[in-house]
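Sample pair:
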Amino acid sequence: MGEALYMLVFDGGIAKGQDEDDVKRKLAELFNADLEQIEHLMCGNKKIIKSNLDRDTATKLKGAFERTGATCEVEAMPSAERPPR
């Protein structure tokens, strides 16, 4: 059996005490995206930001993402969505 894989999931949440416009600007910088794309990302629906990650990479990406003031989760990949080895 292979190594467990994870995904980074975002539902549009912002950490308590953070300014929404500042978080959007930082997310735009992180993703090299425009504010319209970030608005779509922050619509409140769960979005998979990155998938098929090992635990260490998922944890590092979560830290980078959360430094913008947004919140996200690391979730295990469902086994049906894992790429073949």
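The first strand starts at residue 6 and ends at 10.
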